[in-house]
Design goal:
6-stranded mixed beta sheet, Spore Coat Polysaccharide Biosynthesis Protein SpsA, Chain A, 27 strands, 716 residues, disordered N terminus, 20 helices
Length: 716
């Protein structure tokens, strides 16, 4: 038999002793059999919520900026505006803080301006609060400009298993030894393993090492106790720096060292910080465009070798091909626009004025088209815009926003001759890098307070609502409560002692409370001719704590645990409110016409539609409603009649800065019922109610079949 070769995946055979040889690690997985001692009581294993926590993954980079009370509102703010949004986590450390902390900055004040004490407290704070969460720690001063993207790219190429002390290596003052410390003005990088080993020695360093400069003190501490010196290059990666001279013009610096620098120091004033950021951003942008051109050239060269050949080359090169619809229902329509008007409006009107973000978008795309034309044809021709003849745009989810422009242009030659011509151009604004937006953490254990407004017209549907509520929440012990809101007409309210129109509902509630002894279902009686949703919610809001999670329901709603959990997860206090779009079943008399209804749980969605005209259901916290309602009250003063034209959705839309999450909810299904539309409400609310009834009758194909059968019956 021959000598065994390497195993698949890079693993090597074990030594003769049965284990890995000294200096080698065995990365092959082993199955550890699970066995439980029957004599010990069973204990439930608590798993972490995220697999990242259980596997011990760490975030990549933490950044600490050393500042002072004198420069907090100047240089530190400039650092925050230029690089803070590029780093995942950035904190500012100072000895003494000013009375007002700049907005958007997380500041840690140690209470002492002595440089050595500030460095000691900063290292201790970083270890205590972030030592177990991050792999790399980058420490810089507020008079340093650092290229954030370059620093992030640097740590991705370094191994986290070594003790790393990386920066601009400098000799100690008055020393002739070989060891070096990292100059604090140019920033330096410390690995997590080095920080963990350094922490036990910080107190000794503070008491035994005397130094004027905090970066020298830290370097001496690391060298004396850990034997690790500062290096400027490691594992093939270089930490490039550049020292600025006085009165330097960043735009005129052309030396290679400056262009390749990760950190620049000293930055004497705020204006210079912004100029450096503009200069290096332009360098990175030029590099990105150059890389794009090189990649596009490689794609063109390789396309001829593919089975589709050059015919498979998409435009623009490197961008996904346009979406190909499989049926006429998947065709993405184009929206027509001019420089003044948009002919596909959000409110459904055929024509509206071009304004806001849409106007800025059209202006920018026209300027980009002219810039591209001039870059292609200059110096032979120079184009200027006369008029936008036609504009079309559509959003393709596979590639981005597409534009087609018909431009009336004036072309001027090198000799000064001009010619007016019409030219069609096509442009694409591709989808950029997708980012995950951080959201506050919520749980599914929050209690939901259901609020059900009831009028006389709703009495026929209350029994089904209470049955579904009992089956899906009370029987399953879901953490949900119910409050009924009886809306009496003034005439019915006068006769309530003789004939109570809601007596039957109150009897049903009494039966539920007898069946479930621990459940109490309170009700509130209101007398009004115009049941404004906002006025009703004002009454309910005052009777519940501020941390209550409300679910504003309708009598046709069928409550289930699946939706209640989504209500909890999609509603975030002081951050987001949830307005689900319920699924409305069609009129069975028109859809089935005497045939058997669909019995399969997956087929019912074909027999209805998502009612986008209804805003009756909503999930929100009482505190958020009270805050928005206070702003509304200050705006309308004592004009309460304005509330009759508003819904809770309008209150949050116009008077809160919260996210309004509006999404289809397949778990919220409503049986068909003809809603009664109150003509005393505003014209818009009444119109929406009528539209909801009309569109909820049946689909166009069902209506066409019903008309056809009716005509057939009339003709015979």
């Amino acid at each position: 038999a021959g000598r065994p070769g390497p195993l698949a995946g890079g693993a090597r055979p074990e030594a003769a002793g049965g284990g890995p040889r000294p200096g080698q690690e065995d990365f092959r997985p082993r199955i550890v059999p699970y066995s439980r001692d029957p004599n010990k009581p069973y204990k439930k294993v608590l798993r972490t919520r995220y697999i990242q926590t259980e596997l011990g993954f760490h975030e990549r980079l933490f950044v600490a900026v050393l500042t002072s009370k004198a420069t907090l509102n100047t240089l530190a703010v400039a650092v925050n505006k230029t690089v803070a949004h590029h780093f995942p986590r950035l904190l500012y450390f100072t000895g003494l803080r000013s009375a007002k902390v700049p907005h958007g900055m997380v500041l840690v004040a140690h209470g002492d301006e002595r440089p050595i004490w500030l460095m000691y407290e900063t290292m201790h704070y970083i270890h205590q609060h972030f030592g177990s969460d991050y792999d790399w720690f980058y420490i810089m001063q507020d008079d340093t400009y650092a290229q954030a993207e370059q620093v992030k790219a640097l740590v991705t190429h370094l191994s986290i298993n070594q003790d790393v002390y990386l920066g601009r290596a400098e000799e100690f003052i008055g020393g002739d030894e070989q060891a070096r410390y990292c100059h604090g003005g140019f920033g330096y990088l410390i690995s997590r393993s080095l920080l963990l080993k350094l922490h036990p020695h910080l107190d000794s360093c503070r008491n035994e090492i005397l130094s004027v400069r905090p970066d020298e003190w830290l370097g001496r501490c690391i060298i004396d106790f850990l034997g690790v010196a500062c290096v400027s290059q490691l594992q093939g990666q270089h930490y490039h720096t550049y020292e600025l001279a006085k009165n330097t013009e960043p735009e005129k610096e052309e030396v290679v060292e400056f262009q390749a620098a990760l950190a620049v120091h000293p930055v004497s004033d705020v204006t210079l910080m912004y100029r450096l950021h503009k200069h290096f951003s332009r360098i990175q942008l030029d590099r990105a465009y150059q890389e794009i051109q090189e990649l596009q050239m490689q794609i063109r060269n390789l396309t001829s070798l593919t089975p589709a050949g050059e015919a498979g080359l998409t435009w623009p090169v490197g961008i996904n091909a346009p979406f190909l619809p499989k049926s006429r229902f998947e065709v993405i329509s184009w929206d027509y626009f001019t420089e003044q008007h948009l002919f596909s409006c959000p409110d459904g009107s055929p024509k509206c004025e071009l304004s806001g973000a849409s106007k800025a978008d059209v202006s920018e795309i026209i300027e980009s088209a002219l810039e591209q034309l001039n870059n292609r044809y200059q110096p032979l021709l120079r184009f200027s815009k006369r008029q936008l003849l036609n504009g079309y745009r559509r959003f393709d989810p596979t590639r981005g926003m597409e534009y087609t422009l018909d431009l009336l242009l004036e072309a001027v030659t090198q000799k000064g001759h001009s010619l007016v011509m019409a030219k069609r151009v096509s442009l694409v604004r591709p989808l950029s890098k997708v980012e995950i937006i951080p959201m506050p953490y919520v749980t599914e254990a929050t209690r939901v307070q259901l609020v059900l407004p009831l009028t006389v017209q709703d009495l026929d549907f209350v029994a089904n609502f209470l049955d579904m509520f009992a089956m899906n929440t009370l029987d399953t012990h879901d953490n949900a409560l119910l409050t009924l809101l009886f809306i009496y007409h003034p005439y019915d309210a006068q006769r309530v002692s003789q004939v109570d129109v809601f007596a039957g509902v109150k009897a049903m509630v009494g039966e539920l409370e007898k069946r479930y002894a621990e459940v109490k279902i309170p009700w509130i009686s209101v007398k009004t001719e115009v049941p404004s949703q906002v006025k009703l919610m004002d009454i309910v809001s005052k009777k519940h704590p501020v941390d209550t999670l409300f679910f504003l329901a309708s009598v046709w709603t069928e409550i289930n645990m699946e939706f209640l959990n989504r209500c909890r997860m999609n509603t975030i206090s002081n951050w987001q409110v949830f307005f689900p779009v319920h699924f409305q079943e069609f009129n069975p008399a028109l859809v089935y016409r005497g045939e058997q209804t669909a019995s399969s749980g997956t087929d019912f969605l074909r027999d209805g539609h998502f009612d986008r005209h209804s805003f009756a259901e909503a999930c929100f916290y009482n505190s958020d409603y009270m805050t928005a309602r206070t702003k509304l009250a200050a705006d309308i003063l004592d004009r309460d009649e304005v509330l009759e034209s508003m819904e809770v959705f309008d209150v949050f839309l116009h008077y809160s800065g919260l996210h309004l999450f509006r999404a289809v909810e397949p778990g919220l299904v409503q049986k068909y019922a003809l809603r009664s539309c109150n003509p005393r409400l505003s014209e818009e609310l009444y119109h929406r109610c009528v539209l909801s009834n009309l569109e909820g009758l049946a689909s166009r194909s069902h209506l066409a079949m019903a008309l056809f059968e009716q005509e057939q019956a009339n003709s015979t």
